[in-house]
Amino acid sequence: MPPIYQLQHAQKAYDGRVVLDIDALAIGRGEVLALVGPSGSGKSTLLRLLNFLEPPTAGALTFDGRAVGDDLPLSERRRVTAVFQRPALLRRSVAANIGYGLGLRGEKLPPEELAAWLERLGLTHLARQSALRLSAGEAQRVAMARALVVRPDVLLLDEPTANLDPYNVGLIERLVAEEQRALGMTVVWVTHDIFQARRVADRVAFLLAGRLVEVADAETFFTAPATAQAAAFARGELVY
């Protein structure tokens, strides 16, 4: 089966400076790919390309066999959704935030499904509360539910658990894993936490200075990496 994403000689430059230069990367359907690397290595830039927020400056990016450009239809763009480190919640109730994405698509979250999500997230007692009054962990749970209720083909995660306590980290990791299995969706997860990458990922892609240094299945990456840079990163050492 062809990959859901494919990048070939894809570059992203700002003001003439190349910040991302990927020779080749294929992301499989239904896999969980962790993007790891030091700060400034290009992980979030790559995620922006995969989220269709920006096109490559050079090279090719395809989504489900279709070249990605300004003419990519809204129906294709809506197959991908993202959750970021700092969720942007609306000045509305928790329940209204969870159903917001579906509302934009002209759909409504059935009451019984909303109730199930609230119970699953431990937020039933907060359903009518303003989302702006939530703790960081509660807010991220709402953001994750809002992304998942639209049943995306691809879920992009940009360090969604970076500032959370262990309880919320575990809850969100379990939620993503359950939905990924249920929907067969592709997950691309940017994380600085090498332990999290090992827990959640099928494969790991290691970026350094905008280049893709190594891609391997998670077990191989952490036990027998092919490059010295990946080995140092997996040991928790600084890599330049």
Secondary structure elements and their pairing?
Blueprint: E1 5-14, E2 17-27, E3 32-36, H1 43-50, E4 58-63, E5 66-67, H2 74-77, E6 80-84, H3 94-98, H4 100-104, H5 111-120, H6 136-148, E7 154-158, H7 166-183, E8 186-190, H8 194-200, E9 203-208, E10 211-217, H9 218-223, H10 228-234
Q: How many angstroms does the end-to-end distance come to?
A: 36 Å
Residue-averaged pLDDT, rounded? 92
For the report, how would you describe the main beta sheet?
6 strands, mixed
Which percent range fits the helix content? Answer: 25-40%
SS-derived structural category: alpha/beta
Question: Beta-strand level of the residues, as a percent range?
Answer: 25-35%
Total beta-strand segments? 10
Q: What sort of overall outline do the alpha carbons produce when their principal axes are compared? A: globular
CATH H level, superfamily name of the domain at 5-87 and 154-234: P-loop containing nucleotide triphosphate hydrolases
Identify the CATH class of the domain at 5-87 and 154-234: Alpha Beta
H and E string = EEEHEEHEHHHHEHEHEEHH
CATH architecture of the domain at 5-87 and 154-234: 3-Layer(aba) Sandwich
Radius of gyration equals: 18 Å
Q: What's the CATH topology label of the domain at 5-87 and 154-234?
A: Rossmann fold
User: Which stretches are low in confidence, meaning pLDDT under 50 for 5 or more residues running?
Assistant: none
